[in-house]
Amino acid sequence: MARRPLPRILSNGGARLARSRELARTASDSATDVLQPLITIARGLRRMASAARRRWTGTPRERRGALLFLVASVLLVVALMPYGPLLAAVALMAAAAWHGRDRPPREPEGPGDSGAQRLTALYEALVPYFFLAEDPDPLYTHGGSWEKAFPAYEFDDTGRFSRLVIHYPAYFKDGEAASRARIEHLLTAKAGRGREYHFGWDGEANHLTLTVLAPLPTDVAAQRFVTAPGETVLGLTDPTQVQRTLPLTHGEERRDVPPVVWRTGVRSTEPHLLVLGRPGTGTSTLLRSIALQALHHGGDLVVVDGGGTGEYACLTGRDGVLAVECGLSGAVAGLEWAAQETERRLIAVNHARQEGRPPPDDTRRPLWVLLDRPTAFTHLADADGRKDPQALLQIPLRHGRAALVTVVVAEQLDAVDALSEAVRQHTRARVVLGPAGADELAGVLGAPPSTTPGDQLPPGRGHARLGTGPVLRLQVPATPDPYDDATTDALRQKVLELLPPRTTPADGEHVPGDPGDPSEPGGGDAPAGPSDRDLDLDEPSPAGEETVLAATVPEAVPAAPTAAVSAPVPTLDGPRPTPREPVPTLDGPQPKHKKSVPTLIKP
Ligand SMILES: Nc1ncnc2c1ncn2[C@@H]1O[C@H](COP(=O)(O)OP(=O)(O)OP(=O)(O)O)[C@@H](O)[C@H]1O
């Protein structure tokens, strides 16, 4: 059947319609331009009329008669004057045009009543700190005015300060931490507790800027961070303090968040990290997060857990995890091996340099030594008359940077005194999690933070300082123990996905199943927690009966760990075992294996 053409109005009606709409718009624009003076005058007349009406209603009744009489007299005079009505009409039009002109919206004037009250109260509170009797023209004085002292202020919807600039006298000792802390403490109390503030001291201009900080996101979970090898994300911080951002996945959406990135390796100026916090503030979580990132970048891990709660059990037997030690003997053996491995690497690198060769491959794989609560072992060793495992950290801490050996120590704040001198001296990257006083923070970080901690800190919230850098607010990404019953399924799955696969055990050793990990044969049904959970700190296993926690090393990197058991280990301090001689451990010599380290401790 032949197609019938559409009616013209339908076939090209759309274009016509658009054209006519365009024409109408142009015509209306031109008309508006032409009639603009009339529109302005009309708007002015309306504004004047409403002003007159307001004036009339605002005039008391008893004076309205007089006002009416005055207006009538003026009108009469004008009417009787030569050209009076004409001049009056011209004047009226001119006045209407003036009042009808477009005016930019007026800035709200002043802080309002409640704002002024807050500013006055704050000003009075600051007087004792900023007043000097000898000052001939004091900026702060009792009964004085705050206008000159607070050049800029902003309030939030609830009427509390969101930003405030405070001008202080030049003689105020802003270079002294104690003086600054007193002012910050006062401002925190006056500006409203329960929020976190940033204090920006501008010593040159004698200005202090108080800014309310938005809470750091607590809903970011462990994930693959877009970082280069040698970079570890400790957590998230404020955009004002860091230039860089990382794209992070948060639920379904992706957003750019400023991270605290810690650089390790040969060029690092702070190659080792100390994490402190009160119990339950998230120090183990941060160590787990670091472990996952280290494994992702191809590092080897030795984990020493003095907490003894099995929070690192999920790492046991994973590719790259050399040992997860919860007992004193295991800890000592693991750390002894790490010290010897550091030396071996150093010497190998030195030889290679002297011979003009690049460093051998088996010195290039980063080795991470993670210690959670090492002071628990110090007490145990002391009671037992055994060697303090912390003493073994001396070499990795002092020489680890050149050997790509990184030490991370997590400890409780009140056990700082029990940390060895070497740990305190060589851990120049510092993190403090959870509530801590300004003095405590300054003592650990070497400088007080420029922000105040809130009253209620979520787990994983704290401060970080890398070397001599600024003190940064920190929120550690949620990286819970996947074997913990309290962990939600979504988070458990996220952490399990980040774990490397299990290494095939050597010597037919059994590597425990992964409860909840569907990829593990029998994993879903396995009892929660592998064997290291059962280790009792108070009862160190007898020599030769220590539970094997980690057994193997991937084939791709045979040299590093194998060296621990079979390669010659020259030392910095003195003679070491001769070639082919196994490194002695507390539990006796180790068997030799071609591709794998059987154990750090004999089964
Ligand atoms: N960054 C975080 N985000 C969300 N929850 C966290 C975070 N850090 C820790 N938590 C939660 O807080 C609790 C304590 O964490 P964690 O075990 O890491 O603390 P801890 O300082 O090691 O305490 P303890 O020494 O008692 O083991 C856990 O339930 C953990 O899931």
Automatic annotation (TrEMBL):
Residues bound to ATP are 277-284
Asked whether the keyword Nucleotide-binding is assigned, the reply is yes
Annotated FtsK domain ranges read 257-442
Biased segments, Low complexity type: 545-571
Membrane-spanning residues: 65-98
Organism name? Streptomyces ziwulingensis
Question: SUPFAM superfamilies, from UniProt?
Answer: P-loop containing nucleoside triphosphate hydrolases
Taxonomy of origin reads:
Bacteria, Bacillati, Actinomycetota, Actinomycetes, Kitasatosporales
The UniProt annotation puts the region (Disordered) at: 442-467, 501-603
Q: Does the keyword rRNA processing apply?
A: no
Protein name stated in the entry: Membrane protein
Keywords tagged on the record: ATP-binding, Membrane, Nucleotide-binding, Transmembrane, Transmembrane helix
